[in-house]
Design goal:
Distance between the termini: 75 Å
Number of strands: 0
Radius of gyration: 31 Å
Mean pLDDT: 76
Number of domains: 5
């Protein structure tokens, strides 16, 4: 059976009827009686009473609500023109009342004018800063039209208003699922459950995603069962039960994480992941593929230009553009890039006054590694429509690639001013100040703003990490560094069992109770992302693993490796320390920790770790190599360097680093 993802809680209808307490103002009794009749479905009688209420209090501020409910009643009677007039009258009575603007937007959308509907809904959103319905409805319109970036921006705007809303997070998840990003969808649904563990749409959709898209029947079964505990009846409960019936007998639980360390990283400082993740069991039969939607036939490859010209002759430039873009999309799907480029250039030539044509050509040129040419296309798009946010973001991206940082900055500031709730613009500004311009205070300002406005965006993890590095911290207490000669022979200090250093910034929540199964599931997800070099998500899932069970040494080890790959050495250092607190004889964690100490100039700490390794494994050649590197830094410890390098050559004479070591020794 093909199970669909439930479209959860997007507000698709007019507002519900509300009841107010009775009052003595003229017309109030008729108003309340009208609402009561409407609640019973007696809409004609209700409208008569509301009309009488209006006649009894002409010019009253309360009439805005009366007109609004008259519009709702007319809508339910199928009298759309009367509904429109009533909503307009409500807006005239009180221009600050958001409900009629919202309802008029819904009505306009249902009449087929999506562009006008979006304008009205955005007006409603501006009038009610704490209400998310209008932005959610705008997102629904964009989803219907396949405009994923626009839908995403609308939902992030809603999330900025209601960061604790499981409904908005679930809508974001569904958007990612529709656009083919099942992993991102899972991320947002897990966020929704963090806010409300019993939120039924999130539980059901996780079941569908794990069953249909990710092929993990164990996880799917758990989420379907949890959903049925919350939602015991209804069509989705029936789907969940059928899904459970169709699944085979429960698969064996994933085995615990192997504690065997990975092969030692090379001296080039590439840090490997720990042992392989517990592999998910293969389903007995493949998951059902999503049903393909019917595709309307498009103009043939040979005659699309003629059809586009005919549309232009009829005064339909948008239609002409659509024909060219359809041809380009078809060529792109078949990887015929020459044909795709020809169609896009045809669009830019025939529809020269349409900014979307130049934007589409620019995006293609960016994918083909031509940022200079793309920059020209984006500039033309913005000449035609200076407020086209997608073109502004694209121009900034191209400008960064071509080194035109000033142009990127100006464009992004304009975009941020036009759409302050656009997460992509704010993130691009933060990254530009941080990575390209090196303006630390501005980078901090925009990263903080991003964290505040978009707490559900996965990039907040990276923003938080960058802030920890960029923001000034109190200096750690300076420790007395022992003489280098003493360090080589001294008993190594057990740094892994001591309290975290003063510069420790690893933010790990201690589990209230250990949930080892959830920890292993998160760990396994982390290893997948680590293999894909998606370090942000790897960090997220390893962190989730140790927050569920803080005794998993391998999870801390892999967390350190992920932070290392991201260049976050202080965080990597503490993660390795945490791993060693749990399993002190893990040589790989200690070796990686020594490399970090050496890289940070903390030579005494590096020597401590390396000497401990050699007590555990006296034949560990790479430890001697790194000892040689550390000792060779100081003229007074050259003799120790020579001893370490000589021992390294005895143990690993054919190591790739051996020739360089021999050359160094010959020169001493």
């Amino acid at each position: 059976m093909q199970r669909s993802i439930v479209i959860s809680c997007l507000t698709l209808g007019v507002v519900a009827l509300l009841f107010f307490g009775c009052g003595g103002e003229p017309g109030e009794r008729e108003f309340q009686r009208g609402l009561k009749e409407a609640s019973r479905g007696n809409y004609v009688r209700a409208r008569t009473l509301l009309e009488k209420s209006l006649s009894l209090r002409p010019g009253s501020e309360a009439n805005a609500s009366v007109y609004n409910y008259m519009g709702i009643i007319s809508f339910r009677l199928g009298q759309m023109e009367q509904a429109r007039q009533a909503f307009e009258s409500s807006r005239q009575s009180d221009p600050t009342f958001s409900e009629p603007a919202y309802n008029l937007g819904v009505l306009t959308d249902k009449s087929g004018d999506a562009a006008r509907a979006i304008t009205l809904l955005e007006e409603a959103a501006a009038l009610a800063p704490s209400d998310t319905r209008a932005q959610e409805y705008v997102a629904a319109i964009h989803v219907r039209n396949g405009k994923w970036p626009e839908a995403r921006r609308a939902l992030f705007g809603a999330l900025a208003r209601a960061p604790q809303s499981s409904r908005v997070l679930t809508s974001l998840a569904l958007l990612e699922a529709y656009s083919g990003s099942a992993d991102k969808a899972v991320f947002y649904l897990m966020q929704a459950l963090d806010k409300n563990p019993h939120y039924a749409p999130a539980l059901f959709n996780l079941g569908v995603l794990y069953e249909r898209d990710l092929g993990d029947r164990d996880q799917a079964r758990e989420f379907y069962k949890n959903f049925l505990e919350v939602e015991k009846s209804g069509p989705f409960a029936d789907q969940a039960r059928q899904a459970l019936d169709e699944m085979s007998v429960a698969l064996a639980a994933a085995p615990p994480v192997e504690s065997a360390p990975a092969a030692a990283p090379s001296v080039a400082e590439t840090i490997q992941a720990s042992g392989p993740a517990a592999a998910p069991a293969v389903p007995e039969s493949p998951a059902s593929a999503p049903a393909a939607s019917a595709v309307q036939p498009s103009a043939g490859a040979r005659d699309y230009q003629a059809v586009a010209r005919e549309a232009l002759d009829r005064g339909q430039p948008k239609k002409a553009l659509s024909i060219c873009l359809d041809e380009a999309e078809k060529a792109g799907r078949s990887k015929d890039y020459a044909r795709q480029e020809k169609a896009l250039r045809t669009a830019a030539r025939l529809c020269f006054d349409q900014p979307e044509a130049h934007y589409a050509l620019g995006r293609f040129l960016m994918t083909r590694g031509q940022p200079d040419a793309a920059l020209r296309s984006f500039k033309q798009a913005l000449t035609l429509n200076p407020k086209m946010t997608l073109a502004q973001l694209a121009l900034a991206e191209a400008a960064v690639k071509t080194g035109e940082y000033d142009a990127a900055l100006v464009t992004l500031k304009q975009a941020a001013q036009a759409e302050p709730n656009n997460p992509d613009t704010l993130w691009a500004l933060a990254e530009l100040y941080d990575r390209q311009l090196g303006v630390q205070d501005k980078a901090i300002e925009y990263y903080r703003q991003f964290e505040k406005l978009f707490p559900g965006d996965p990039r907040v993890l990276k923003a938080s990490e960058r802030l920890k590095l960029l923001e000034p911290i109190l200096p750690a207490e300076t420790m007395r560094r022992p003489a280098i000669e003493e360090a080589a022979a001294a008993e190594p200090q057990r740094t892994e069992t001591s309290a975290p250093a003063a510069d420790s910034r690893l933010d790990i929540k201690k589990p209230v109770f250990r949930n080892t199964k959830a920890a292993i599931q998160a760990y396994n997800r982390g290893t997948i992302y680590q293999q894909q070099e998606d370090w942000d998500r790897a960090v997220y899932y390893y962190t989730r693993a140790v927050e569920n069970d803080d005794t998993l040494a391998n999870a801390f080890y892999n967390l350190g490796s992920a932070y290392w790959a991201k260049g976050e050495l202080q965080l990597a250092k503490e993660a390795y320390h945490r791993s060693l607190q749990i399993s002190s004889d893990t040589v790989n964690a200690r070796y990686n920790l020594a490399l970090i100490h050496q890289k940070l100039g903390e030579n005494a700490a590096a020597i401590d770790q390396l000497n401990t390794i050699l007590k555990l494994q006296p034949q560990y050649a790479q430890a001697y190599y790194v000892l040689g590197m550390v000792y060779a830094d100081q003229p007074k410890t050259r003799s120790q360097a020579m001893q370490a390098y000589t021992r390294f050559l005895e143990l690993a004479p054919n190591d790739p680093s051996a020739p360089g070591v021999r050359d160094w020794l010959e020169k001493q």
